[in-house]
Design goal:
The structure holds two protein chains of two kinds.
Chain A: E1 2-5, E2 16-18, H1 26-36, H2 41-46, E3 48-51, E4 54-56, E5 67-71
Parallel strand pairs in A: 1-5
Antiparallel strand pairs in A: 1-2, 3-4, 3-5
Chain B: E1 20-21, H1 27-34, E2 41-49, E3 52-53, E4 56-65, H2 67-84, E5 89-95, E6 97-100, E7 104-112, H3 115-132, E8 135-141, E9 146-148, H4 154-159, E10 166-174
Parallel strand pairs in B: 1-5
Antiparallel strand pairs in B: 2-7, 2-10, 3-4, 4-6, 4-8, 5-7, 8-9
Helix pairs in contact in B: 2-3
The chains are: A alpha+beta, B alpha+beta.
Pfam families (chain A): ThiS
Protein name (chain A): MoaD/ThiS family protein
């Protein structure tokens, strides 16, 4: 799966990267990212996740070729 | 840029412009696109970069967007508001990249026969864009430090309304038809 992160998350992760781990759901992905970068876990808890540009729930099942965006809280305007 | 009326909703006209812009927002040109003989009221909101934040002097902001999602979301918010308030024209455009203090970061223009609907729709559109569209600001201060708006200082994020970062300027124009 391909992961894209934005804004403050880029202080902790590359802006996009590939993950080979066997992660079944978005919740698993979130836990995996928090384990990799414990300092980002508070921010990850506020993030929404999108697969192919559509927001998905934490229970969403990940497919091998999914492109997953990790979306921090908006701060536009 | 061109104007296009929706075939499905002939009473409504989302102005067909790019919802994101990497260059200066041209408020005068955008306003000229929005004029409509059916509209007695045109409300223009410009969210502009304030030169101070949390006691520090702001040099500029840098806006990042998830471009495909943010574009789709802005279009859908404008379309929904146009239908709900029976606007004659509506548009919204948000900056990406570096925006200096005093420059416009986002503009929303709503037009309706009377002012009540244009004001209500305008506020609805800007509130939803600010809270929901995947767009982020990073503040760069004159002391060389930077800070993501709504970043890891989560308590601060939750305690402070997002619009405290902005100088909100509303201009309005009444056109009596």
């Amino acid at each position: 799966m391909k992961i894209k992160v934005f804004a403050a998350l880029k202080d902790y992760f590359d802006k996009d990267f590939l993950l080979e781990e066997d992660l079944k759901t978005i919740a698993d992905l979130k836990a995996h990212l928090a384990k990799q970068q414990p300092k980002a876990s508070a921010l990850l808890n506020l993030c929404r996740f999108a697969v192919h540009d559509e927001f998905v729930a934490l229970s969403h099942l990940i497919h091998e070729n999914d492109e997953i965006s990790v979306i921090p809280p908006s701060s536009g305007g | 840029m061109k104007m296009m009326k929706s075939a499905l909703f002939p009473q409504v006209a989302e102005v067909d412009i790019a919802p994101l812009s990497a260059t200066d927002l041209d408020l005068v040109q955008l306003l000229s696109l929005a004029h409509d003989p059916k509209a007695g009221a045109v409300v223009l909101f410009s969210g502009e970069v304030r030169d101070n934040s949390a006691g520090k002097t702001v040099d500029y902001l840098d806006y990042e967007a998830h471009e495909s999602m943010a574009s789709k979301m802005i279009c859908s918010i404008v379309e929904e508001a146009a239908k709900r308030w029976h606007l004659t024209k509506a548009l919204a455009q948000h900056r990406t990249g570096k925006v200096m203090a005093g420059e416009s970061a986002v503009v929303v223009i709503t037009c309706s026969p009377h002012r009540k609907e244009a004001y209500a729709a305008n506020r609805y559109i800007i509130d939803r864009i600010k809270h929901e569209a995947p767009i982020w600001k990073c503040e760069y201060f004159t002391d060389g430090t930077k800070e993501w708006g709504g970043n890891c200082s989560c308590q601060k994020l939750l305690a402070m309304p997002i619009n405290t970062f902005m100088n909100l300027r509303v201009s309005f124009f009444f056109l009596i038809s």
